[in-house]
Write a structure and sequence with these properties.
single chain, alpha/beta, Purple Acid Phosphatase, chain A, domain 2, seven-stranded mixed β-sheet, six-stranded mixed β-sheet, 6 helices, 15 strands
């Protein structure tokens, strides 16, 4: 079995310090083969915030693959955002904006979807799609995972504009054999196959540490891969009456591959949307991969 931990939207500068030690303890307990962080390490891309993020990452007891989020480029320093948008990220997080990872079971490719000229929206560039597909060409039987900050689809309740190039990227990733897309940005967790591309599983992470929870608790995802089966478990922060907090496993959704599509395994098998809590079937009128508001 291979185990991948998906974390996103830490937002140092507007984070909950009491969650840091419990989150690190949970990662140590899980012992993943890889920890993926899909962007937004900081709130305003300030040096002090990047220092905090770096200190946290150095305490993670697992290999790391990181991609930037829009909050990791300066918002209030326009000159710096246009001239050296990723300078601080490269110094404190990773010089490589689109890293890759490969072992016997996983082929993971990071994609930088940040667009410094449209700070929030994001963009999936054509050359990034070509690079991902090239990386997957010789992946063999490995699970092919793409990691990006901005999701490829938004639900109708999301006010943010969708990423430029998302529809083209979804088609391209499906055509070149990608299996899973990990993303963040919305601070909402959910897992579902894309309806337009049922061979692609959309795994959306909530926020790991931010106080901007948007009605949800702080969470991360754990992906367990065994052959053609994949289980996605959401770990959530749970507070006790004394003010203590720990991350614990919560809802879990299992999938298997059947004729190129991800199918929910177990009772009520079929394509479904887990964004509303539990394994509710997706209505035929729903948009692909959309998570309803909770």
């Amino acid at each position: 079995m291979s185990r991948l931990l998906h974390l996103s939207d830490l937002h140092f500068g507007r984070s909950e310090p009491a969650l840091e030690a419990p989150l690190l303890a949970a990662i140590s307990r899980i012992r993943p083969d890889l920890v993926v962080v899909s962007g937004d390490f900081t709130q305003r891309a300030r040096v002090a915030q990047f220092r905090q993020a770096r200190a946290f990452l150095e305490r993670v007891e697992a290999p790391l693959l990181c991609v930037p989020g829009n909050h990791d480029t300066p918002l209030d320093n326009v000159l710096l955002r246009f001239l050296r948008p990723f300078g601080r990220y490269r110094r404190w997080i990773d010089r490589d904006l689109e890293p890759t990872y490969r072992d016997a079971a996983l082929s993971v490719v990071g994609v930088n979807t940040v667009n410094p000229f449209a700070w929030q929206q994001g963009r999936f560039r054509r050359r990034a799609l070509e690079r991902v597909c090239t990386a997957f060409e010789d992946a063999g039987d490995r699970l092919r995972v793409a990691v990006l900050h901005h999701p490829l689809e938004h639900g109708p309740e999301v006010e943010k504009r969708p990423m430029r190039g998302a529809a083209r990227a979804l088609r391209g990733l499906s055509d070149c054999g990608a299996d899973v897309v990990l993303s963040g940005h919305l601070h909402r967790a959910g897992t579902a196959p894309f309806r337009a591309a049922p061979g692609l599983l959309f795994v959306q992470a909530g926020t790991g540490l931010s106080t901007r929870r948007r009605g949800e608790t702080n969470t991360f995802n754990m992906l367990d891969l065994s052959g053609e089966r994949l289980r996605v478990t959401e770990w959530a922060a749970e507070w006790d009456r004394a003010g203590g907090v720990a991350f614990a496993p919560g809802r879990s959704n299992s999938f298997c591959r059947d004729r190129g599509a991800w199918i929910r395994s177990g009772p009520g098998a079929g394509l479904f949307d887990a964004g509303a809590g539990g394994a509710a079937p997706v209505s035929r009128g729903a948009s692909p991969g959309v998570f309803p508001a909770r």
